[in-house]
Amino acid sequence: MKIGLAQLNSRADREANLVAAGVALERLAAEGVDLALLPEMFNHLAHDADNAAAAEPIPGPSTAWASEAARRLGMYVHCGSIMERRGEDVFNTAVVYDREGSEVARYSKIHLFDVRLPDGTAYVESAAVTPGDRVVTFSCHGLTFGMAICYDLRFPELFRALADEGADVFVTPAAFTVATGISHWEPLVRARAIENGCYLAACGQWGPHGRGRACYGHSLVVDPWGTVIAQCSEGVGTCTAGLDEDAVRATRERMPVLRHRRRDLFG
Description:
alpha+beta; Nitrilase/N-carbamoyl-D-aminoacid amidohydrolase; six-stranded mixed beta sheet; 17 strands; about 30% strand
């Protein structure tokens, strides 16, 4: 099957963001993509409190748009993530729609980004967002996809749990900062793929999005051996890659780390 990544520069304008995402999805559909992946907070990206204020229920305007796009274009659409309002709580949630526009999976980000970067910039996602509590996979074209979002990349135990659930491919929308992305983005993506013998498709936001903050971009697809097989350059753009179930099996035979795990010691 063929996966496509849509690297965007979303800001605090939902309608403009949906137009930009639509252009990217049209391009990926024309390239014959089976599953398109959007970045984290594809519909609205600003500071944490502003993102929370723009939260929507699911279903809601942005997910209805994604569902309709999937049906109209005849491909699976992974909406990256949006801020989801659920009662009094807000979650950072990804939803996947099949070719008919029906929801097939929903995942809320488990690990929240609470850090102070070397330049003094502070991010406190937990001040506005409630963490999820479920490991989620879904099936598409005979492959099992494991879901994660951005900061989740730093927690290998989540990806091992997804591999235990049968994941062949990890799909990870993100809005990595420039400061962390320069040093950590590609090494983390490649490590999670190598550790589990899985493909990893990581779709990032790129560029400035308000009051001195900017995202790193460099969206990429890594194969189960850890080789980068597709990558977006600087700026808004798309990239595609083929995914082969046989490559997953062959890599896990060549490097059988999942079989060699000491479950008696580490679970």
